[in-house]
Amino acid sequence: MTTSTPREPQPAGPVLRPLVWSALLGVIVSAAVARPVSADPSRPHTVPDTGIRPIPNGSVRLPDATAPRATPRVLPPITTGAATSIQARIAAAQTEVATLGQQLLKAREELAAARTEEASAAAKHQAARAARIAADRVAETAAADVLKRAAALPPGVFNSDLHEFGALARIQRGRPEPADTDAAVRAAVRARAAEEAARQAHEEARERVTSLSARYDELKAKYQRAEDDLAKLEKKHADEKTRLEQQREAREQAIGEDIIRHTSVAGKRAHPKALAALAFALKQRGKPYVWAAEGPDAYDCSGLVWAAYRSVGYRKLPRVANDQYYATRHNRVDRAALLPGDLIFFASGPHWQSIHHVGMYVGDGKMVHAPSSGDVVKVSAVWWSRFYAATRIFPAVDVTPPTPSQTPTPSASPTPSPTSSPTSSPAQPQPTV
Fold first, then answer.
1. Which residues lie below 8 Å from residue 197, measured CB to CB, with a gap of 6+?
2. Kind of pairing, strands 355-363 and 387-391?
3. 301-310 vs 272-283: helix crossing angle, rounded to 10
4. What is the DSSP letter of 103?
5. Bond prior to 416 in cis (omega within 30° of 0)
6. Quick one: 315 exposed, middle or buried, by C-beta within 10 A (0-12, 13-18, 19+)?
7. How far apart are CA 170 and CA 149, in angstroms?
8. Which CA distances in Å does 266 have to 70, 321, 394?
9. 421, exposed or middle or buried, with CB in 10 Å at 0-12, 13-18, 19+?
């Protein structure tokens, strides 16, 4: 048996010369360089948002483009130069205070609810104890009655078994039917069990109050420390704080211009009640921000929104900002379709529980809100770079196109009536910025 040595594979066609290879490689490289970056699926199509808030999923469709653009144009960072670290510290401290403020507000609500439950559990425990005492007395009275009747039986008939007292008493002729001791005893047993259950529920409610009270005190101390530290930082670097606010406002306005330019409400307008709630909020301008305040002399961010919608009879809105979002999350609105009165939420993370601020949309890229300690209720540019989501309380209504009125043909009159004078109805008040 012979073996054959494997031979080198022969090329299928003519061998390309080095000069041809060089030319071919040049064409390939030129094509690769000329290919647009957007054709590479591994690269993102948009620049990630530079703000500290996530931008929700949504799109803004341009009038002359076939594909939507996911984000507005990205501007340079709001801080540059040597002041960057100071401004970053101020911004981070403001976010921390706002977050702790909402957490403390929620802890206060939970503690108040727990105290209400504890008071209810205490009342139920007291009522169960009174019912047990009454049941014990009935059982004792029934047992005493049986003992008295048993003592009157002839010798030899008396049975020491207490469970037979009822039967022994009933065999006596000519005497009335005694009370059923078994039923009285069963009622007393049930009353004792109910009292024990009520006692345990009361004890659990008291433990919950104790736990929530300790958590509230801890959060309150942490919030006060953070607020004091922020006040000292802002006082020490007042110029940088002012510059930071100016840069923020300018940057948010620039982003808002891009969004407002392509806003489309599809023939809708805000509900009259939403406009009334907005009008209420606008009337509060100039009143100070106070944590947990709900008016009428001061507000915090969620307290302003809460009071505004309660002023038009809407009482389903929770008190805390992230709860307000969660309660209205099924009515989310794209930021390119906002209407006056819509709620706008801002967060420090991607989850709704990190929401720490809320405002009401006014229009033209503006919102009315109660920003933070040391500030007042005011109208400012929407924080587009820190936008989390927007929701709507009352559904939008269709814009009714004006119809030409049927004007009757005036009859000829030789002289005008001297008593007739033109009258006009007052215009409906509109919310102003």
1. 128
2. unpaired
3. 130
4. H
5. no
6. exposed
7. 9
8. 19, 28, 16
9. exposed
Could you state, in chain order, the average pLDDT of each consecutive group of 10 residues for the chain (433 residues)? 45 44 43 40 39 40 39 42 68 89 92 94 94 86 71 54 46 44 81 93 94 94 92 84 78 72 75 95 95 94 96 95 95 92 92 92 93 91 90 90 55 46 39 38
Please tell me the predicted confidence (pLDDT) of residue 307.
Answer: 97
How far is Cα 429 from Cα 146, in angstroms, rounded to an integer? 84
Cβ atoms 346, 302 nearer than 8 A: no
- Quick check: 313 and 272 in contact, CB under 8 A? no
Query: Amino acid identity, residue 347?
Result: A
H helices of 62-180, in order, are: 84-151, 165-170
Q: How far is CA 151 from CA 18, 174, 181, 195, 326, in A?
A: 131, 16, 16, 34, 72
Distance of CA 213 to the CA centre of its chain: 23
Residue 23 parent element (H or E): helix 18-34
Distance CA 389, CA 103 (A): 19
Backbone angles phi, psi at 123, to 5 degrees: -65, -40
Which stretches within 237-271 are classed as H helix? Answer: 238-261
Closest CA to 163 of 141, 178, 146, 176: 146
Give the residue numbers annotated as catalytic, written as ranges. Answer: 301, 357, 369
Which pLDDT value is given to residue 75?
Answer: 39
Q: Which pLDDT score is estimated for 136?
A: 85
Question: Are 406 and 341 in contact, with CB atoms under 8 Å apart?
Answer: no
Say whether the peptide bond before residue 296 is cis (omega within 30 degrees of 0): yes
Would you state the pLDDT for residue 175? Answer: 44
* Residue 237 confidence (pLDDT): 82
For 219, the token pair is: 């959060």
Q: Work out the angle at residue 293's Cα, subtended by the Cα atoms of residues 289 and 296, and round it to the nearest 5 degrees.
A: 90
Euclidean distance between CA atoms 110 and 219, whole angstroms: 13
Distance CA 212, CA 94 (A): 26
pLDDT of residue 187: 86
Whether residue 169 contacts residue 178, with contact meaning beta carbons closer than 8 Å, is answered with yes
Can you read off the two tokens belonging to residue 404?
């030409």
For helices 321-328 and 84-151, the axis angle rounded to 10 degrees is 80
Residues 146 and 184 sit within 8 Å (Cβ to Cβ): no
Token pair for 416: 């005008």
Rounded CA separation 384/363 (Å): 13
CA dihedral of 36, 42, 47, 53, whole degrees rounded to 10: 160
Rounded to 10 degrees, the C-alpha dihedral 302/304/309/314 comes to: 50
